[in-house]
Amino acid sequence: MHIPKIALPIISCLWMLVSSVHAAAAAKSETRCGWFDNPTPGNVWLHDRDGEWTIAIQGEYEAQGDWPRFNDSQWMSVNRSYGYGCACIKAVVNTMTRQIVSISSANARPLSACRKDPALKEPEG
After folding, report:
1. First-to-last CA distance in the chain?
2. How far apart are CA 8 and CA 1, in angstroms?
3. Which positions make up the signal peptide (predicted)?
4. How many domains does the chain have?
5. In a 3-state reduction of DSSP, which class is residue 17?
6. What is the pLDDT of residues 31-67, one digit of tens each?
7. Residue 33 belongs to what domain range?
8. CATH number of the domain that 102 lies in?
């Protein structure tokens, strides 16, 4: 197949436009609320109404940004200092890999906020 020389710059521009629109859509922040589950060192997930989102896997992956800070009444301790709490996280996510890419803000919530939501299943302790 022969592509005229004049078409190549047009195709290139269209490809860059499509790529930049896709990248911009992928980089949109969203707020996700649910169970912030940290059962073992370096392993963290957020379980919300859409399912499980990976925040960190020890030695493999960790989202950029600060995790929520919980006080004693907001944290269910399991396995010493590990456990889970209820949180809302504003983050850039990758919906294909179900990973949280970067966290711009993270706020702990009362445990009752997640317990009252019928779409959320409390992690096992």
Report:
1. 62
2. 13
3. 1-23
4. 1
5. helix
6. 999 999 999 999 999 999 999 999 999 999 999 999 9
7. 28-115
8. 2.40.50
